[in-house]
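pinging the channel bc i need a second pair of eyes. not urgent but kinda urgent?? the chain im working w is below, pasted from the shared doc
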Amino acid sequence: MRLTLSQDLRMIQKQVLAPRMIQSMEILQLPIMALQERIEQEMGENPVLEMQEETDADLPAESDESYEQESPDAPTEEERELVIDENADNEDDFERLMKMNEQWPDHFEGWSRPSRAAMEEAGQQKLDAMANMVARPQSLQDYLHDQLGWFELEPELKSAAERIIYNLDQNGRISGRLEDLFGPDADKDDLATAERALALVQKLDPPGVGARDLRECLLLQLTPGAPYYEQLKTLIADHLEDLEHNRLPAIAKHTGYSLELIHRLIDQLRKLSLHPGAEFNEVTAPPVTPDVFVEQNDEGRYMVRLEDGRVPRLFISQYYRKLFQSGQANDETREYIKRKINSAQWLIESIEQRRNTLTRVSQAIVDHQVEFLDKGPEAIEPLKMQQIAEKVGVHVTTVSRAVDDKWIQTPRGIFLLKRFFCGGTVSADGEEVAWDTVRLKLQEIIDNEDKQHPKSDEQLVKDLAEEGITVARRTVTKYRKAMNIPSSRQRREWS
């Protein structure tokens, strides 16, 4: 099918604009630390880019009046200028760039290269940060591998044991069949070696490691000669499902154990670990660097500000700009400089647009979630990204990219920006209630229930209704399971 001339032109325009649009979306999506890395990468690849680290003296004094004079939901004049014109070409962009020294002088003149002392200070800060990094904790696999060194093993057995160790899941168990770890070409001798290796791994610390299922995991933790060893072995081997469903009379009937003894055995079972490898998965959460800060002004309104201090101010090298304008460079050099200046221009504008978009989106979110900030997470309001997109005047995908992996520092603590978006349900009085509110209230009811007589899902529905939250029983069951809360029968079993 032949395209018309106008369609051809539109396709050419899209091809020209694609790199700019892609870069703008990528920059918007980056959190603050990743943006710093991206800038450092661009600085290394583009010689016309220069930067000046801002000091406190460089930052303009902010006042509450500056917030009130301009609505955070309205696009700024600079942002209107930064909107990509689909009818513009690169030549127009470049001509506009060469005049930017009149519009944005900070990007071209008035800046000096960082002093040697400043560069040394920045380098020392990076060294200090590296020195204060948390060391990687020992993994389960490392711990088990170290224990293998205690044994004199032939190479085949040691290799098989290592293969098993490095295929354990996060709970310290083998996922799937042992045969699958050694491939379809494994012969009888290989599988025999694998069984010997597994028996060796299962003797290592922590007890229960290397099990193929929960039953084997618990049996491996029993110590022969310990109190109730035989009874616990019988209970685990033959009646684990009965225990799970609290069928204690059935266990008593088949084993001849009294209910008193069974309860005593259950107390002993509670001392065993269901996930022997879990303790090695407790890693220290990395420090979070917020992109957005929320503070109350004198009038009590919550206002947002960005962590701009971590983003260096970028400008285009005056040397290369003058070299291009002077006509002293040959055509090849001038073309190279032109490409690099265009690339620098796109980056500077993308960062500026990221700042404007993130500020407006964050302020719109904060304005909607005032109750959350005043009263806490239980007062969160239902909110969809489409609502913020309509309020700010951008596409919903722009909102999604703006909040992706961004953290916000509030008087209530640090949260992911996505935390403020949630669905809801309609309460008995017709008001919309956030699902987070339902979950918190459900957890509160279960925490305060009589542990000897846990509430069924039907009773939980009634209790929620008394709190003004009307939901179906299947909804309560769904959220209870999602919150890893056992059924009433199971809660009574382990109470």
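so Residues 221-279 form one domain. and The longest helix spans residues 331-368. — does that match what u expected or am i reading it wrong
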